[in-house]
Amino acid sequence: DTEVTQTPKHLVMGMTNKKSLKCEQHMGHRAMYWYKQKAKKPPELMFVYSYEKLSINESVPSRFSPECPNSSLLNLHLHALQPEDSALYLCASSPGQGGGGYTFGSGTRLTVV
Amino acid sequence: QQPVQSPQAVILREGEDAVINCSSSKALYSVHWYRQKHGEAPVFLMILLKGGEQKGHEKISASFNEKKQQSSLYLTASQLSYSGTYFCGTEGWNNNDMRFGAGTRLTVKP
Lengths: 113, 110
What we know:
The complex is a heterodimer. Chain A is 0% helix and 56% strand. By secondary structure, chain A is mostly beta strands. In chain A, strands 2, 4, 5, 6, 9, 10 and 11 form a seven-stranded mixed beta sheet that branches. In chain A, strand 4 (31-37) and strand 5 form a beta hairpin. The radius of gyration of chain A is 13 Å and the shape is globular. The mean pLDDT of chain A is 93. By secondary structure, chain B is an all-beta fold. In chain B, a hairpin with a 6-residue loop joins strand 9 and strand 10. In chain B, the strands form two sheets. In chain B, strands 2, 4, 5, 6, 9, 10 and 11 form a seven-stranded mixed beta sheet that branches. A four-stranded antiparallel beta sheet of chain B has the order 1-3-8-7, with no helix packed on it. Chain B has no helices and eleven strands. The chains are: A mainly beta, B mainly beta.
């Protein structure tokens, strides 16, 4: 079983749509993350939710907004996206700083048309 | 701040060795290593902590030079399954997040 589950696996949305990406971890980890990955590039950190505190990469536009309903769920709300936002969105969880590796979900492949 | 990785790409024959390097201009709390195959998510290989602790689950070795803020990943007697893109990730002292290097594309040929 995948210990970090992301849904949906694929999403196509128009620039006026509102959608959400969902992530759930079953590992008891205290930190969760959203990364964005373009083809042949490394994952770029977007948001960190750690010990009930949200940290934001300041370069992320406001059309992306995270939500953490509880310690095992992390959602990413999308609205008014641009075609350049098309990418693989990866969710990850970890035990916390230095506590071990990050476990990634299989990702959501997002296409903005 | 993104760590610097080298080389960008490596091509090996089965059984050959490779070294991938990662460095940072900032003081590091930990260095992570991940492998990502095409169309898949990154998979954790190893974490190295300041003070020499090492946590991982595969038979791949790594080192962390705390004075130079550098880490190296050692792949010995490479197998076809080692092919993929290797990323180092670094955590600083004051934040609970990880930034990835640009990646090293490793190709192992028969």
